[in-house]
Amino acid sequence: MISLYLEQTSYLHRMPAGIKLLGMAALSLALYPIGQVSILFGLALLTLLIYASLGRPALQGLKVFRSLVPIFALIFIMQAWSVGVYEACALLLRMGTLILIANLITLTTKMDDMMTAMMPLFSPLRLFGVDPKRIAFAVTLLIRFIPVLMGVTQHLLDAWKSRGGGRQLWKLAIPLTIQSIRLSDHVAEALASRGGIRSVKKP
Amino acid sequence: MQDKSLVQIALYAALIAALGLIPPVPFVTGIPITAQTLGVMLAGIMLGPWRGALSMALFIFVVALGAPLLSGGRGGLGVFVGPTAGFAIGFPFAAFATGYAALLLRKLPTFPATLLASILGGIIVLYVFGITGFKLVTGRDWLDAAKIMMVFIPGDIVKAVIAAAVAQAVVKGLPDAVYTRR
């Protein structure tokens, strides 16, 4: 539902999440000193070929990058104007490739596996008395309530439109905030009456 | 941390995701302004500095796990290597600063107090992170990075005003719900 993960199997899906994350970290360091447009272009093309090897859904997933076009255009103009067109191309190719590679990990790794791979980052929190299980519970709660609050938002939008709408759409944030606060009170009561998070076995 | 705080943190993070659903309003600069950074300001005001920051950290963590929760349906690890990475990483710090400032300004009436807090946390602190991230990713110098980011400022000032207006309305409707105004 609310994940960019592609439900399929591939060589990238089978690779462990930790290896993929370390690989990306290494690649981002390796890419940094490269300044030749030809090499960067080749690498970008290679990354796109990997997308193609995953099939059509992966390529369609590239649509989400449309929202980055304005900021990329802005960076290109500024860079071309102050340093040069060649450097601007190199910068955009390097940045674009890195984003594509990072997105590739997201497309081929289940959220559960990603969380397991990232959990060691939270172990220092034990020193402050925070149980990593609570983090897992909070993540579950967040993911569960996104569709609920999106539903509330949609209802408010529909009601707004049926009353004639108008430009002051921001006013919807008021009932949305109030309803979220009420909802969180109800959820907290429901949780308390069931014995609290300590009683949750596996979130 | 109590269970109730944990629920508030999680639900508030879900609210930020829902705010990403409100259609972006094209602003004078031609760059659409989205409701999401409005949510960052409101997190600090509604939940206070610590819980506000935790709820933003949770939100960003779930984005990193692969949920397309940022406005425009963006998400995943790509966000953290892109030109706007600093903003995403700065969300928890901006929420903390907003909440902390709102607590300090508690003696002022709601609207000016939350407006000032939103400008300090949601604009100044957030842009320190945003510009630093932009500089690191694009390799430009500070002044250039700051200049490019300026196009977003007018939209963010509008959002700070909206955050203050929302805070004022919520204080009227549910006086106990706004942590920094209790």
From TrEMBL, chain A:
<dbReference type="Pfam" id="PF02361">
    <property type="entry name" value="CbiQ"/>
</dbReference>
<comment type="similarity">
    <text>Belongs to the CbiQ family.</text>
</comment>
<feature type="transmembrane region" description="Helical">
    <location>
        <begin position="135"/>
        <end position="157"/>
    </location>
</feature>
<dbReference type="GO" id="GO:0005886">
    <property type="term" value="C:plasma membrane"/>
</dbReference>
<feature type="transmembrane region" description="Helical">
    <location>
        <begin position="21"/>
        <end position="52"/>
    </location>
</feature>
<dbReference type="InterPro" id="IPR003339">
    <property type="entry name" value="ABC/ECF_trnsptr_transmembrane"/>
</dbReference>
<feature type="transmembrane region" description="Helical">
    <location>
        <begin position="64"/>
        <end position="84"/>
    </location>
</feature>
<keyword id="KW-0472">Membrane</keyword>
<keyword id="KW-1133">Transmembrane helix</keyword>
<feature type="transmembrane region" description="Helical">
    <location>
        <begin position="91"/>
        <end position="109"/>
    </location>
</feature>
<protein>
    <submittedName>
        <fullName>Energy-coupling factor transporter transmembrane protein EcfT</fullName>
    </submittedName>
</protein>
<keyword id="KW-0812">Transmembrane</keyword>
From TrEMBL, chain B:
<dbReference type="Pfam" id="PF02632">
    <property type="entry name" value="BioY"/>
</dbReference>
<keyword id="KW-1133">Transmembrane helix</keyword>
<feature type="transmembrane region" description="Helical">
    <location>
        <begin position="77"/>
        <end position="103"/>
    </location>
</feature>
<feature type="transmembrane region" description="Helical">
    <location>
        <begin position="149"/>
        <end position="171"/>
    </location>
</feature>
<keyword id="KW-1003">Cell membrane</keyword>
<dbReference type="GO" id="GO:0005886">
    <property type="term" value="C:plasma membrane"/>
</dbReference>
<feature type="transmembrane region" description="Helical">
    <location>
        <begin position="115"/>
        <end position="137"/>
    </location>
</feature>
<feature type="transmembrane region" description="Helical">
    <location>
        <begin position="9"/>
        <end position="33"/>
    </location>
</feature>
<dbReference type="InterPro" id="IPR003784">
    <property type="entry name" value="BioY"/>
</dbReference>
<dbReference type="GO" id="GO:0015225">
    <property type="term" value="F:biotin transmembrane transporter activity"/>
</dbReference>
<protein>
    <recommendedName>
        <fullName>Biotin transporter</fullName>
    </recommendedName>
</protein>
<keyword id="KW-0813">Transport</keyword>
<keyword id="KW-0472">Membrane</keyword>
<keyword id="KW-0812">Transmembrane</keyword>
<comment type="similarity">
    <text>Belongs to the BioY family.</text>
</comment>
<feature type="transmembrane region" description="Helical">
    <location>
        <begin position="53"/>
        <end position="70"/>
    </location>
</feature>
